[in-house]
Amino acid sequence: MGGASGTTTKKKKTKSTSNNANNTSSTSLVPATILQRFWDLASTDAETRCTAAASLSEELFLVQNNTTSSITNDDDKNNVELDAVVEYSMKRLTRGLGSGRAGARQGFAVAFTSAMTHLDAISVEDGFRFLKEGLEPITKSTKGSEARDILIGQLFGNAALARALVAKEVSLEAKKKKKEMMSGSGSSNNNNKRKKWTTPEEERERIVDLSSQLFAEICRISNTKAYLSESAAKVMIELALSLSKQEEGLHEKDPFRLAREALEKCPQAQAWVSRDVTDVGEQSGKTTIETVWLAYSLYECLPARCKEAQSVVPKFSSSSSSAKEDSFFAYENLKKVSHALAECPHAHPRVHPIWEILCEACRSNSDDDKKGGNKAGATTKISAGSNLTRLEALWETCCENGLFTAPSHQRKYLGFRIFSMLLRNATASETAKLFTSPNFIKCLVSNCAKPENYLHACSTDCLKAIARCAKHSETSAKKRVAIVAALRKVGIHRFEKQLAKSSGISTLLAGLTREEAKAYCEELRETILEKSDLATQDESDDENENDDNDEEKKKKSSRDFKRLWALEQMCSITSALSPNDRLDVLHFCLFHAFYSTSKKQLPKTVLGKNIEDCPDVLRRALSTRLLGILLTNIRSRGRTQQQKKQQSQNTKNGKNHIDKGNEANEEDEEEEEKFDALSEACEAVLKFDADASVTDVIPNSARAKEARKNLANALKLCEKKQKADESGVATSIIPLLKTLIVLHASDPKQFTSIVEDIPRCVEELLQPPKKKKTTKKKSTKKTLEEDEEEEHDLEPMDVLNDLLIAFLAQPSALLRDVTERTFKGVSGKITDRGIEDILNVVENMGAGKRGDENDDENDDEDDDSDDEDMLEEEDDSDNDDDDDSSSSDDDSDEDDDENDSDAGMDTEANEGAIEAIRKAALKIQEDDDNSDDSDSDDFTDEQMFATDKLLADAFRAKRQELSRKKALKVAAADFKFRALSLLELFAKSQPSSKFLPEIIVPRLLSASRNARIRFKSNPMEKSFLELAQRIDSVLTKHACKHAAMVTGTRKDIHEILTQLIDVADNGAGAGRDSDAAKGFAKTAAVACAYIAKVMESNGDGESAAEIYKTAITEKFEKKTSRLRAPFFAELIKLSPNVLASSSKELASLCDLGDSARAQFLRQESLQLLFQIFSCKQRDSSIPSAEEVNSMCEISLANAVKADVENQSRRADTSKMCANVFEAIGRHAEGFVFSQKAKAAIENAIETQKERAPQPSQKTVQALERIAKALDDAKKTNSSTNDEGKKKRKSSIAGDDDHDEREKKKKKKKALKK
Q1: What distance lies between CA 550 and its chain's CA centroid?
Q2: Helical H runs in 722-856?
Q3: Residue pLDDT, tens place only, 948-990
């Protein structure tokens, strides 16, 4: 073995040596200019490579011609061999194909193609030989990187041969040249050459053989490595299409004959094209997207059996030019190939070429977008099997339901890139399909929101592509408006941060003119009004009846989608319209949502015609979008009014500053304020009701008509009393009445019972009945009964408040928004009973238990009884947010059908089944021995079936009951948050109301504590904790904000403060660090400090101080107390004088001993004393100088000399003492330490220094600070006295000067007289 291997090594060395010798001898004959060309071919500059390739081919052509011309014998000229330089150059070019250095492959491939084309002495067969000799074969010992270079070199070489074959043998120029050679009319050089082909058929056969050989080599390379499949397929498609293009002169009727014959001789190519595209990921991990590319691009070139075997393009019988595209873009076929199109991992991050071909095939041939209309859809390319266009079908099947639903980031990236490509080719109507895709929008928004996301950069590029497409000069105005409308629908605020630098979307919106928006709205209106042209189904065809119905449903849903899309677009760009055009859109939506007419001509205010086949889905969408327009307008007008108030306030304060960027928007804001959409909608409803030719879509009962009539009368009364009403109640109620009129028109059945009480309430509120004069009653008993009845009578404002609370439970976002605005307007008239009603909603904890299935049924029923009465009409879904809620309706219909079918059961059969179940239950209790002897005939078949049905009904009813209870609990929890929003509005608008300290703050704090206790008992119920946190926010940020403004509180408010301190001391029933207790301590501290400040503002600060003193001495000292220093620190922020009065009690906590509890209280009290004496808002006379000296003599002195074993705590205590003494010296004007206090403190300092162990350096420094503070206080006092004397002297001198000036003035006046 060793000898053999040694011999083999020697042979290899000998062979390589001989090759090197031959190369050396050949290189010595090659001119230097040619050698330099090889270096230039490897350049990274494309222009340099092309120049070198052209120069090399020219030089080789000259070398070969010189060799041929030097031969004198004609026979030798016909059998001339290649020159050595040409032979060397061709071999070196093929070897360079396998080099990965710089641009060697590209340069050498170009040069190889050019040399093969221009040198007549080199045939394509010679090219195969050079390629085989230049690139070594791949063996088992070949390394991976070497094998990769060889395979890529082979692919480049075969691509060069394919191009050379086309240019040299198949092109028209080559055919012309050969024709001249065969006829003998060529040049002398050509005449001397031997003719290799005598007939065109032999020439064709040779080209077919060479082409099939190239196809086979390309397929072999593709099968070796999957990442080479795309490039191999590209070479194969290029060669086949090139062969087809050159057949025009020979076979005009069949230009694909040459390529078809070549493919027919290559079984490998047929197998590749015929691969099943549904087997994605099979075949040794190879992808099938190249199969789709080959079959689609080469369909005309495929042999007959290959067309039958391929699974990309379905069979078709049409002979039109677009038959292949129509068949491929069929909806079902796109769904089949979508998985194969998604499998392109080796193309990432590029887009596979097949996508560019498909996107271009989706382009519409119509120019109607540029001209402003879509004429009958004649040039629109429709996808077979649906009413979608090719682009819409491709997007829906492959992207929306394919790429964007996959978990792979790579596929989502591809989806974003394809979106940008399709958007460029999409028409205005097709743009809607792209932007109304929920999966795409969700992926785009989520990735744009977070910069750390993997696809953030890609999604941002997608947004920029949208802006570029809309701003492009070739983009039609119609399409640009469609893009703007789509962005408005999605929500521009989600993307504005990503485009802040370029501000592409902002510029796009600013550039949208009203004329463009109006023209686009008119086209969208026509789309909505377009009548259905569905083909009627043949009723006699029973076999295909189901298929026909399914097809009709698809067409109907497609038409409804287009209508819904047009409605979405029209409502999205209403803000870009003028007020008059906006009013037209409003009337259009309102009429077609709520009314219809039998006449052809609609009311004057409504444009267009009647929708004859308007489905319920479209009417619900019209109603939803109408309410959305009203809500947007109300909020916009509210913001404008608030900005004007702020500007007027700034003008009064001298801070008026107008930005230049906002000046352009002033006109738009004024127009927005003038356009009152709610008033226009209400007026339109009343006009349509009065029109006899107009009928309601939902038939109105007499009760509903009466309710709407009463609402209209109440509205007239409010408008009549609006000017004379100084309180503004009528002005606040008018928007509510208008909203109820519009909502009642949308759904009379739902809102009739809701709005019946509001007209009477408004009438009593604005026109209170006169009180009758009372006379003395004969019976005392009767008088007492009447007094009780009068107590139970409600004030009109209380009734209105109850109605507003009930409106909050409704699913309409418009009604809730207007309700909150109405409550804010009438908040000044709200009584204490109204406030208590709102608080009762918040405090009711029974409805807060969401989904607690383990509780007893009786407990659930008791807890939910109140909420069921209060929320019996509330719906889970929000009609203003969801366009289509048909799913819930369908479910309810199914349940009704089941109930109807169950209702038809025989009562006797039910009783028999129940009796059988009872017998079976009794038999289970018997012994096992007796069970064998039991009668098996007790259950009949009918009873068994009836029992199964009853059991199923029982389980279904139980499940429905649980679902209903869960829904009620969720709705009740949301209702609490809405009630809290009313309290927040009340606190903002009425900060000086006495209801805040007397009712709202105490009860809200108690509700927060109860919610936390419920959360502690059931930690799975997060709704309780969320409610408590929301209450804390209302208390700390709004309710307890302006204590100094509250006046006229009741006398027993000190009891409220005592109760709140007790609540704070008890805590939330959990540890301080638990989730239930977090935040409650601060909320309780803020509430107590607020009440104390209110008492101080009303002249009862001493009572508040006494209460806090009691809290310090009786609660703070106890170990079980939950009061801490932050609780008292909140009082220092609001009312420092109240806590300053308790300084002596705080100082006493410093002298409780040396236990751990005593040390903790010492640090807490020292911290609070430092904050008290450091507070600048504190009255310097509180506490008095005597009290301060008393504290220093005893309590503070004992704190200085306290025996603390821990050195760190010892130093901290000394630092805190030093801070307190320094604060006393700085902020106690005219204060002087007494001799006793100074002596006590100095003795305490000495005692602390002498304590064992020896104090640390930090402790010594703190003690030195205390001593220095005593000296500084004395110096400050003496300097203060000196300054006082100087001020008095200067004031006396100033008085003397003033007297002298007055005397001089009097003398001057006397002289003048």
Answers
A1: 35
A2: 729-746, 748-755, 758-766, 780-792, 796-808, 813-826, 832-843
A3: 777 787 788 888 888 888 888 788 788 888 899 999 999 999 9
C-alpha count within 13 angstroms, C-beta hemisphere, residue 1193: 11
Euclidean distance between CA atoms 825 and 727, whole angstroms: 9
The mean per-residue pLDDT over the stretch 894-900 comes to 41
**CA-based angle 798:802:806, to the nearest 5?**
170
CB atoms within 10 A of CB 19: 10
Peptide bond into 303 cis (omega under 30): no
DSSP letter, residue 756: S
Q: How high is the pLDDT of residue 864?
A: 43
- pTM, rounded to two decimals: 0.68
Cα–Cα distance between 258 and 253 in angstroms, integer? 12
Q: What is the mean pLDDT of the chain?
A: 77
Residue with tokens 């410093």: 1150
Look up residue 272 and give its two tokens: 């590749």
User: Which residue shows structure tokens 């809405």?
Assistant: 978
Question: What DSSP assignment string belongs to 807-826?
Answer: HHTSS-HHHHHHHHHHHHHH
958 torsion bin: left (phi>0), alpha (psi -120 to 50), beta (else):
alpha
Task: Give the Cβ contact number of residue 435 at 10 Å.
Answer: 24
Rg (CA), the chain: 47
Residue 135 confidence (pLDDT) above 90: no
d(CA 716, CA 737): 10
pLDDT of 761 over the 50 cut: yes
Instruction: Give the HSE-up count for residue 68: Cα atoms under 13 Å, Cβ half-sphere.
Output: 21
| Strands 694-696 vs 595-597: parallel, antiparallel or unpaired | antiparallel
Side chain identity at 351, as an amino acid letter?
V
Separation CA 189–CA 119 (nearest Å): 13
For residue 1095, what are its two tokens? 């008492």
- End-to-end alpha carbon distance in the chain: 148
* Lookup: tokens for 433: 């399909």
With helix as H, strand as E and coil as C, how does 400-414 read?
HCCHHHCCCHHHHHH
List CB contacts of 1088: < 8 A, sequence separation 6 or more. Answer: 1057, 1060, 1061, 1064, 1127, 1130, 1131
Give the model's pLDDT for residue 739.
93
Q: What percentage of the chain exceeds 70 in pLDDT?
A: 73
CA dihedral 96, 99, 102, 103 (to 10 degrees): 40
Q: Name the amino acid, one letter, at 208.
A: V
The residue type found at 54 is: A
Reading the block at residue 627, the tokens are: 């309410």
Q: Which of 407, 401, 408 is nearest to 438 (CA)?
A: 401
Residue 1064 near residue 1127, CB atoms below 8 Å: yes
Which two tokens mark 267?
């079984």
Residue type, 454: Y
- Give the pLDDT confidence score for residue 10 in this predicted structure: 39
Which residue from 529, 563, 566, 625 is spatially nearest to 428, judged by alpha carbons? 566
**One-letter identity of residue 428:** A
Helix (H) or strand (E) holding 595: strand 595-597
Count CB atoms within 10 A of the CB of residue 1295: 10
Please give the DSSP secondary-structure letter assigned to residue 1247.
Answer: H
Q: Which two tokens stand for residue 543?
A: 């076999």
Q: Which of these, 640, 662, 801, lies nearest to 736 by C-alpha position?
A: 801
**Count of C-beta atoms within a 10 Å radius of residue 175:** 16
pLDDT band at 819 (very low <50, low <70, confident <90, very high): very high
**742 pLDDT exceeds 90?**
yes
| DSSP-derived 3-state class of residue 1072 | coil
Of 485, 565, 557, nearest to 528 by C-alpha is 565
Confidence of residue 189 (pLDDT cuts 50, 70, 90): very low
User: Using CA atoms, how far apart are residues 44 and 683, in angstroms rounded to an integer?
Assistant: 75
